[in-house]
Structure formats: C-alpha cells, structure tokens
Amino acid sequence: MNHPQRAEVFNRDEDRVDWHDKTLWWVRQKRDMAAHKLPEWEALREAASQIKHNVLSNLDEYLVQFEAHAQQNGVTVHWAADATEHNQIVHRILVENQVTQMVKSKSMLTEECHLNEYLERNGIEVIDTDLGERVVQLAGEPPSHIVMPCIHKKKEEIGEIFHHHMGTEAGLSDPQILTGLARTDLRQRFLTRRVALTGVNFAIAETGEFVVCTNEGNADMGAHLADVHIACMGMEKIIPKREHLGVFTRLLARSATGQPSTTYTSHFKKPRNGQQMHLVIVDNGRTVQLGREDFRNSLKCIRCAACMNTCPVYRRSGGHSYHTAIAGPIGSILAPNLNMADYADLPFASTLCGSCSNVCPVKIDIHQQLYKWRQVLVQQGHVSASKAAGMQAMSTVLSNRRVFAVAGSAGRTLMRWFPGIVSNSLNPWYKQREMPEPPKESFREWYEKNR
Amino acid sequence: MSPRDKILQAIRQNKPALTALPAIPTSNTFADQVVERFTEILTTIGGQVVSVPDMNGVAEYIRSHYPAHRVITTFPELAEVAEVHWEDTSPHELADVEFAVLNVHFGVAENGAVWITDPLMMHRASPFICQHLGVVLSAGQIVPTMHEAYARIGSADYGFGLFIAGPSKTADIEQSLVLGAHGPKTMTVFLVD
C-alpha cells in the first residue's frame, strides 16, 4: 500500500485523527515557546547548519580522527557498508559473548536496518526499553514517530497490550499506572541482560566520545548494567569538537518537545573497568546521498522530529502511512535515496507549504528537496502513468494563457451545473472534505471589470 | 577492500568542497540571576531545589525523609546517615537503593542541568538506578548556558560524563507527563551557599 492508501485507513477513525493532529500541533507550539525564549535561536540554527556542512565537507577526515581517538579510549570500532553488514556485526558480538538476550534503547538506525527482525531470526531476544518503543514492539508494529514512537495509540489500547503481553490487570488506562508497570517489568530486564545496544546522537571527532540523549534513562540503565555496550551510528552523526555540543544540545530538545534539555545527556568516552564498548559506524546509502548535490543536506538531520510535528500531512495521515523507519517530511527525502521504486510515493505526501524547513534546527531545505525528488522520480519513471499524464495535462494548461482561461471557465460552469462531477468518491480531493462553491468569475475576469 | 576503506573512498569521491567552521553564537539571555533561573527551570522540569547551609543540612534532610531506607552517598561526612563504602559492590546490588546523594561539578542555569563525571558517581549506574536522586551543588558553581558549560569542561578527561536535568520522565502514553520512567522519580538539588 502507498501513502494515500495507508492515510485513508488512518482517516477512517475521525476522532483519532483529530486527536493526533491536535496533540502533535501542541508539541509544535511547545517548540515555538522554547525557541522564542532564546533571542539567539536563529543564530544557533545557522551555526548548527554550518557546522554540519563543514562535517559533510570533511567527513572522511573526521571519521578517521574519531576512530583513532575512540580506539585510544578503549572502544572497538566497526564499519558497516550496509544494513546487512551492520546486523551481522551486532550478531557476531552477541555470539562471541555467548549471549542470546539483549536490551536496546532507541536507535532509528537499527529500525532502518531491521536489526530486531534479523536478530530474532537468529535466535536472539531483543527487548526495546524506551516506553513507546516497548509498546509498539509488544503490539508487533514499527514506531510511528521518531521521538514519540506510540503516539498513534490510545491509552486504553496500551492497557490492553500490557494486559495481553505482560499479564497486567485488564482495563487499565492511567498513564501513571501503565508507566509504573512497564518500569517494574523493564527493571528486571536491565538487571539481567549482559548486552545493551544504544543509538548515538553525536560523535565527537576531537575526543572519540559519543553522546546519547534520553528522557527516560533507559539507554544508561542498559549500558551501565551490561558487560557489553554496543552503540550504532550513521556516519553523519560526527561533529568536530566537544564545544559544538553546546550548539546542538541547546537546539535538540527545544526543537523536539520544547524542553530546555533532555533529562540525560550522556557522554560515553571509555568502557568502565571490565566492560566492552563497541561502536558500529554505518553507511547504508549515506555516501550515495552525500554525492547528490540537491539532497546531501538531508544528512544534517539530528532526528528531532520538529518537521513531523508541524507537517499538516503527517499530523493527519499518521506515521505508519509513510511505510519507512523515519516518517514525515525528513523521512520522505531520506527514503527515496535508499530505494526510489519503493518510496516514490513519499515526496508527494506533502503540500510543499515549507513549514518543515522553517522549524528545522539545522536548516535543511526539506520542502525544496521534496519538490526536487518529485522531478527526479518522474524523470526516472517511478510514478504511475496516470499521475505522469495528469502532470503533463496540468503543465499544458498552466503554460498556455488561453487554454488556462477556457479550462477555468469550463470548470466553474461544470461545477455549478453538475456538482456531482467533483463531489463524488472518485475524486480524491473530495475525501474527508466538502468541495468549495465555484466562484462566478475568475480573478482575471474580475480585474478586467474593476481595474 | 574493507568496508572502512570502501566507505572512506566513497566519501572522498562524493563530499562537497571544504567549508569553514562558523563562530559559535554567544548569549546573554541567562547571564544574570543564574541561581534564580536555575531554580525556576529545575522546578519547571519536575526537580526541586533545597537550600542548605552545609552538609549537616543534607544529613538532616536524609534523616527526616529517608529514615528507614537504603541511602548511599559519596560524601564521607554523611557516613552517619548513609552508606559510604559501596565502591566494591556490583552496580546490580544498587537496585534497592532508595536515595543516592552525589557530588556534582557545576550546574547550568538555562536548563537546570548538573554536570557529573564518573569518579563522582562511584558506579556509573548510581544516578540512574536509585529511586530518588539528590546532588550537592555550590550556588557559586552555576554557569549561564551550555556554551559556558562546555567551555568549563574544556578538554577534561573522563570515562563517562553526564548532564542530568531533573527526574527521569516520559510522555510516551498520550503525551501525559509521568515522572520516573526508568531512572529516579524525583531529583533534589541541595544548594549550598
């Protein structure tokens, strides 16, 4: 199913869509309040964007520096060209340590690589420990949002999932109680698992340390109680110096949830005594994206999800309609790089309103990239014949003044006389909306009379 | 060719022309009244500030709030009210700790965070595994923003360094804020003048 089809499924439950829409818009408003408290906010965004540009322009050198420093710190560094290599490396570390169970904190990279499925096929039990990720894991679903993984679920459904999988009392729906139950259940896992996997928010070339940001404390509960800590990062997570963390930590949580900081900003530099620390650096298509001049800025992303919370299409279609690990506007410009045929629908899941670009803390030109991907996808034959024909017809009409005037006039007349021509279920614009009254005349006609 | 060399070669072929690093913006937003701002923001994010004249005030707090619970600390002067010799236990044995009192290097006014590195934690798990966390901060050790924080950290060496801003929290269920996700349910900063 493509984005419009999945969005249609999500839109069957009108109350839920309204709730989803309003809740995410509230998160966007919290972001605004936090940002407006800092007069230097725009200067911070510009600095973050330029730091990330410098990183992309010198990425090979920074990665080599980072690797050397991390190794000096006692960290084992692995390199993976693609998702398969990444999954094999993680599996090999587990096998070498004779471990079949692992706790994992949030890592969108491992979602992108489908690590859980791979490990489960190889007899490894993976427990996701971020509360939202645990909920969707128990439900057998992928996360629908990169910061709030189960934002598509109602609390009653979560109570039902816990009842079914954890044997908790039926009918619970109080978030405080449900969180307490998950806390107790997961604490036992943290105390008994010997391997913990975390993601990476920032990796510092200058020092070889990596930084993980969470609110729940689950990454740290896993890593500090386990004998083996595996951290997985996309190669673009590098930043040059420790002082640059000042810029990114000020932007990240404010953009994500409106908090002045995440609760925990953990700087992992050396393994503790007797512990192994592994770091896996992953390419998986990123070097290809780096070579696409129009799209390379997408690699600046720090995964705050501000673009999702503000997006009118995301808020009303839900994260699962994007059928990729990272949903929303940023996901729609990242996914076609991995596979144009599979994700050709995503750059069209946008109104091109530009709100995503306006809130992006690293100033990625997201809506312009969405527009550019559409052109690439049409040129390379990845859109349906009917869409291509429609766009061709539109192009003919819009580029010829007379044809445009005739078509507009004919359209208005037809809509007035035969409203059923547009107000029917065959017209996708009619779904979930009323069509507008056709105006009596066009602006051009009005202007001719009134100028 | 190894994956490493393949990746590095692909980067060299595809990267854009070298651009310079920008200057880091500065801020005066939080430069004045750092203690008041720190207190206000920590309170907003679910933490609390308790002003104490000296470590006796911390001991008094422990006596009144955690009379019959397991309390651990890294301060030898709190030996009467808390365990001080737990460096040789495994971190797993801290699972039943009710309250942990640790020292921190400094605080940050703009986000209510405190900076702590592993020698001050004894075990890296200690600030996370306790049910309630207390830290001792000198009022004179609060910097305005994260820029000054990293300037102060400089090139310090540590195995593990951590900013903590309030208690562990989640809003994953319908965006309802719950304090105490996996880590401490409360965070108290003992502010010493």
What are the salient characteristics of this protein?
heterodimer, A: 451 residues, alpha/beta, Rossmann fold, 3 domains, 6-stranded parallel β-sheet, 4-stranded mixed β-sheet, 21 helices, 10 strands, 52% helix, globular, B: 193 residues, 5-stranded parallel β-sheet, 11 strands, metal-binding (chain A), iron (chain A), electron transport (chain A), metal ion binding (chain A)
Overview of this protein structure:
Chain B: It comes from Rudanella paleaurantiibacter. Chain B: Pfam families: LUD_dom. Chain B: This is Lactate utilization protein B/C. Chain B: InterPro entries: FTHF_cligase-like_sf (IPR024185), LUD_dom (IPR003741), NagB/RpiA_transferase-like (IPR037171). The complex is a heterodimer of chains A (451) and B (193). By secondary structure, chain A is an alpha/beta fold. Chain A folds into three domains: 86 residues, no CATH class; 247 residues, 3-Layer(aba) Sandwich (Rossmann fold), CATH 3.40.50.10420; 64 residues, no CATH class. Chain A has 21 helices and ten strands. In chain A, the strands form two sheets. A six-stranded parallel sheet of chain A has the order 1-10-7-4-2-3, sandwiched between helices. In chain A, a hairpin with a 5-residue loop joins β5 and β6. In chain A, α9 runs parallel beside α10. Chain B is α/β, with parallel strands linked by helices. Chain B has a single domain, classed as NagB/RpiA/CoA transferase-like (Rossmann fold, 3-Layer(aba) Sandwich). Helices cover 26% and strands 24% of the residues of chain B. Chain B contains six helices and eleven strands. In chain B, the strands form three sheets. Chain B has a five-stranded parallel sheet, sandwiched between helices. In chain B, a hairpin with a 7-residue loop joins β9 and β10. Chain B is globular and about 65 Å long. The mean pLDDT of chain B is 97. The chains are: A alpha/beta (451), B alpha/beta (193). At the A-B interface, α2, α3, α4, α8 and α10 of A face α1, α6, β8 and β9 of B. β9 of chain A pairs antiparallel with β8 of chain B.
